[in-house]
Amino acid sequence: MASRHPIFARAYERASRSEQRGEQLEHRRALLAGAAGRVVEVGAGNGLNFALYPATVTEVVAVEPEPYLRARAAERAASAPVAVTVVDGEADALPLADASADVAVASLVLCSVPDQAVALAELRRVLRPGGELRFYEHVVSTRPRRARLQALLTRLLWRRVCAGCHLDRDTGAAIEAAGFRIERCERLAFHGLAHIHGVARRPV
Q1: What number is the average pLDDT over the span 92-101?
Q2: Is pLDDT at 12 greater than 90 in this prediction?
Q3: Is pLDDT at 184 greater than 80 in this prediction?
Q4: How much of the chain exceeds pLDDT 90, in percent?
């Protein structure tokens, strides 16, 4: 099941040290504030979020397909303030039972999944009715010229270099199309890219 991107994974581990402070850290902290119960974090990467989970979380199932990042995540899980289990898995076939999670977390990962609709359907499947999807994702610009440039960069180079990352996805629309009800969505700019940050809910 492993999804190997060894060069990207090691570059991400080095680059992510800067995400443990400043504005990026605050975005991640806000993403997880108030989460409670059993959480599934899809594409957990190297586990940067683990230290930020509040005590109201009873368990985090962290799903990560890339072996090097999964190993770094397991190291961080050992010192996390809540119970974290790191597992191998892909977003399009999550290793969880139906309606078994209270909260799903997608943090800078829905840009990279092969098929957003399939991944979001899986997140909806594993969430209990009324469960939350917490998302923090970079998205396509609302400016047409910039959006065209993002699409061109994605097609020519970006997704090959950055482990399948797409700069041109309208992830907010995809979340709604997957049957979630968006309760809060803030649009912000970070690292020169548009991002969305918010909470959606699986209808009861």
Answers
A1: 97
A2: no
A3: yes
A4: 72
> Is residue 62 a contact partner of residue 87, using CB atoms and an 8 Å limit?
yes
Confidence (pTM): 0.89
Range with top average pLDDT, 18-22, 102-106, 193-197:
102-106
Closest by Cα among 105, 55, 41 to 83: 55
Structure-token pair, residue 92: 């399009």
Helix 6-15, helix 67-77: angle, nearest 10: 40
Residue 105: what are its φ and ψ, rounded to 5°?
A: -120, 125
Return the pLDDT at 16: 73
Q: Give the 3-state secondary structure of the chain.
A: CCCCCHHHHHHHHHHHHHHHCHHHHHHHHHHHCCCCEEEEEECCCCCCCHHHCCCCEEEEEEECCCHHHHHHHHHHHCCCCCCEEEECCECCECCCCCCCEEEEEEECCCCCCCCHHHHHHHHHHHEEEEEEEEEEEEECCCCHHHHHHHHHHHHHHHHHHCCCCCCCCCHHHHHHHCCCEEEEEEEEEECCEEEEEEEEECCC
d(CA 185, CA 195): 10
